[in-house]
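Good morning,

Both structures are done.
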Amino acid sequence: MSIKSFFAPVNSQQKKTSLKHSLDLKEDDATLPSNEIKKVKTDTSITSSSKSTNSSDKFIWTSFSDNVSNTWSDLLESEIQKPYIKKLAEFVDNERKTKIIFPPEDKMFSALNYCNFEDVKVVIIGQDPYHGPGQAHGLCFSVQRGIQVPPSLRNIYKELNSDLNIPPVKHGYLEEWSQQGVLMLNACMTVRKGEANSHQNKGWELFTDAIINKLSKNNTGLIFLLWGKPAQKKCQSINRSKHKIITSSHPSPLGATKTNEPFIGSKCFSRCNQELIRMNKEPINWKLSP
């Protein structure tokens, strides 16, 4: 599902073109020379998730192009042409042929669809999707309605209650946060059923690094909520003179009360809103609908 921008409606193509031209794209974002982009054979071996066009030899990852239709599509266009993306696309597609992979293909990029680039105010980084049936739908820490709230999310609700007096809801569906400008991005965007971290080191980390770098370079005044060492390490390159970093331990029961910055008691949600207000931005309404 695509979430509409908060801005006044304009011609979508004009909006994307205008924003793309206005971004301060860096040298590493430049399109690769065509001789570095391997041509995918246009025969029956081509999978449903990746192909190339005969006319331009341009690689098309249809799982991405069919499911990401907002500004992220233009912003990540050159990244999609890098050789590692073709390998990643082929890996994920082949995995789906023989194994159960979460989230479903049409929800793989929900984090980008629910929160357009120009709407991002807050960034939350997860590790990889939940690997149980029916859980993952493309937003870190979030599960679909009707699924039991996972332990980490229960601790998130516990801290919300302590920090902002927001009682926990009975579901774990966090799309309402994304609709307000919270980008909920997993470092690895797919996983095999029942096998945590099974899609690590296949290219997802490079792709999500690129997303984070574009946010850091082309935006100002973002709030990064970094829970746990992996999230903090992943965002080491964030420009702290332009953005606010709020850190704590991970909300998992294994770490929520540990380290010198425990998640429980961190008041990260009120601190986030205080920073947004200081920057004359609308704070996040962290209270979810029942």
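Second structure follows.
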Amino acid sequence: MKKLLFALVMLSLSLTAAAQQKPAEKDMGAYLFTYFSDATHSLFMAISYDGYNFTPVNHGQPIISGDSIAEQRGIRDPHIYRAPNGKFYIAMTDLHIYAQEKGLRTTRWERDEKYGWGNNRGLVLMASDDLIHWTHHEARIDLLFPERFGDLGCAWAPQTIWDPAVGKPMVYFTILPKPGGRLRVYYSYADEAFTTLETEPQLLFDYPDEKVQVLDADICPMPDGRYFMTYVAQENPAGIKYMISDRINHFDDYHAEQIDTERGGCEAPNVWKRIGEDKWVVMYDIYSLKPHNFGFVETTDFKTFTPLGRFNEGQMKLNNFTSPKHGCVIPITKAEAARLENYWNKPDVSERPKIGLVFGGGGAKGAAEVGVLKVLEEAGIKVDYIAGTSIGSIVGGLYAAGYTARELETMFQTQEWLSLLTDRNASLINEPYQTVNGVTYIFGFPVIDRNSSIFGVMKGESVEHMLDSMLSVKGCRNFRSLPIPFRCVTADIRTAQEIVLSKGPVSKAMRASMSIPGIFKPVKLDDRLLVDGGMLNNLPVDVCRKMGADIVIAIDLQQEEQKPRKQADLSMFSSLADMIGFGGILEWITNRPDIEKYLANRQKADIYIHPDLPDADASSFGNKNAARMIQAGVVAAKQRLPELQRYL
């Protein structure tokens, strides 16, 4: 276990070290606008190169659907922040105000009306290194801090800023502490990975009139080291006010005047700096308009504010979209803006074919599949469906969860796969022969388990734990939460039937799909006993096609040329004990008993990618071997690049 934890820590550190540090202002050349819509309760993005004209990415469609990341199946109030560590953080309200109309619940709110409007209790925290691949985690305020906030009314509008004194992201948000109380703004500190809140929320500021509700704070650093905070006071009308402080987590500099220019109610202020200028824009949502709009004022001294009008009524313009809500703007580099546009602005999903990606089995040769992914990412190929078997279920499942090719490359090159896959007992590494609790070890490797009646001595607990930990980082422990739909192919050793898994814990499905009979213990799932899916379908093109893929890209790790032959006698499952032995069983798994299906699936692939791995086998783990096989995958994919580019 210690070795596994050490490996996970080293993997995390290596991925963190690879993250880009925050660029300087001189490197910025564009603006990123995040927002949501009432119609979808999902996350949107738009880009501007001048700070005045904003155009949506992904053809004005959501980049992340709210129902895939939130307990209430919808998000509101997305706030994006770029931290000094180079990471991007997005904090959002977990709330769907139309869930009843959408059939997502039977009541207007998830709790009694006494808790007030919305009465949600959770926030969604997301993190990314590249603005494309995001982790997501739920932070339930009532569960994290039950003593003080176990019966809170609601938690809304989270925003993030880095506290240099603490060295962590500070998340501040609106809380109704109890039913019948008043909305106030609190702050808490999150962990750097942005997976949870670590400290009990504290009050950010007091408002002079205790009867007035305050909400929707936004904190912006000032050039002199102080902090400029805008917020909403629900007076008549509700409007934007400000305070200034030399402390990031305490404000008491009250100013009575409102700085917005609206007669009706406003909310959701956000302050952002114009690149290369000493000008700051205060943007706010005018919810009192029908349809609602955004208003803008600009300042150079944080005392006087010049009106800029509203979207499409003054200098600020929306191109090809309308009615964004609760937005936030940050500066980004031109390269980052171009990467977002290249990734998202493909032909509309209703027009372009849906792409499926199949990951074949082959043990350590799965590193070559990472090389293929590197080319697909560089080419901007957007994958809609993934199916995998054996090692392909691990590579494919982690990619479906949001791991990038670069992160998977690091995993293959830094992980101690031999110890991980064999459940090696670190305390017995120097013992030539030892039996502990009925299990016989040779230099720490388990070879005989006299306590088990199930084929396979290795439990696979270490690899399953590692996979579950990696999936947890991305917030994708279950199939339902995966950003890309994924199917995992296994085989039921009792019935000799192919079983395609599509629900439940992803790590357990992966563990089942790579359970080589006689080596790994089968995985019990419901009434089935599941083993390596490669025994029956090592290149599941048919599975991916059934998911809805129009075009299937298949990565085949099989090296030996296979010829049609009579259907294999699957009764060998029942006498598998006669075949136990590392060399024989691995060779049998690699060649598969169902060659007819393999050959048919290979023919069904629209783009067939076959890395050349003449000197590799299923057990060729290690840094040097991984690097060589990843490069073989790159070469094989580039040979198919002209075909791939047809689907950009």
